[in-house]
């Protein structure tokens, strides 16, 4: 072997040694990294396990933790599906609204939880109530629901998922975010989404999941106890894996309506079917009389009153294209706090990506500024707009159909408009000193009002609520000085945003 060949062999062996050393060091680093990861995962698992053990429905916290009877000799038998405690038809009065201290709670634990002690529970059930500004309805529902669930021997916790902000209600996003928070609390076998205005009439409609999703409220007094167009509205019951497989609810529907129909499709494309309750004839409910304060208007108007903002209608009906990517997996929220009250666990859910405290729009001219709009949150007021009209037939929904026939004095119009909240944007003059309420604002000046516009008055009172995105804000009059430098589009405006 030549000297050159010897040198090449030595170099090759040296390279192999270096490679082997690097592989050895890499294996050590990888092993250490895996060990750290496994330790962290184990720590998280232990922490989650400790949290679950503290939950009111956990076996560790349960008086039946060993699933034994009181004499500790005979194992408890599983609770019967149709409990012997059931009464049957109930005297449900949707007009009765109890005070908080009058609500029947039974043996409810902190957080609105309960489980049977004389038999082994069949399932752990989470009841989620999507909620916003309906306290009277909530009191009526809790007063009816707690006694029924305890007679059914249903182990349960009630969660009230409340939308935190002042904007329009998004039921789907509230349900998605509440579902995520609830599963962090406990490994539930069953989840029930319950509208706050639906009162059971019979305790034989059992709140315990089946192998398929169940439409638990098919018979409602408002619809003469007949099917009402959707198999997934009102009260729905499903296992967590069902909701996950459907990718939850859509987050696109702001205001009342349409999200249930969307969810029906999502469940339909999943590998399971919506079924009827086992005790179908007993699945009867009374709906508490109310007006929907959050109207779904679809696409006719694209301004601050639009519920689905700037979304083309063809996108909303493309269920297949968006249902797999838009829903439970894409909901954007923050839980501002979990409060375990005596009757329920309250989830304070913020859905807005950006929370704005104030927004000021200013006009800049000659080194000085003029404030046009200041949205710092203030009390609502009614601004009189002369030579301005809103045509009588424009922008009404069925909710205000009967109200638009009323001719009200100024004071009565203010009072009623305040009561209606987001449903009323002001009132238009019909005759001297008499006004009609308006739900949608489309302001027209007197010189461009169509001939078929039958509003008789010459002014309106527009509801202005600074800091509330649900209302169009009226700016101050702008005085533009005459100048060659300030011809359009050279006007200078600035926006000051305070988060």
From TrEMBL:
Domain named Galactosyltransferase N-terminal: residues: 79-210
Basic and acidic residues: bias regions: 45-56
Domain of life (superkingdom): Eukaryota
Membrane topology, record value: Single-pass type II membrane protein
KW tRNA processing (keyword) present: no
Residue ranges annotated for the Galactosyltransferase C-terminal domain, each copy included: 215-291
UniProt xrefs under Pfam families: Glyco_transf_7C (PF02709), Glyco_transf_7N (PF13733)
The enzyme's E.C. designation: 2.4.1.-
Region called Disordered, residue ranges: 45-65
Gene3D superfamilies: Spore Coat Polysaccharide Biosynthesis Protein SpsA, Chain A
InterPro entries: Galactosyl_T, Galactosyl_T_C, Galactosyl_T_N, Nucleotide-diphossugar_trans
Keywords: Glycoprotein, Glycosyltransferase, Membrane, Signal-anchor, Transferase, Transmembrane, Transmembrane helix
Subcellular location(s) of the protein: Membrane
Involved pathway(s): Protein modification; protein glycosylation
Name of the top EC class for this enzyme: transferase
Chain's role: Catalyses the transfer of galactose onto proteins or lipids.
Protein family: Belongs to the glycosyltransferase 7 family.
Record-given protein name: Beta-1,4-galactosyltransferase
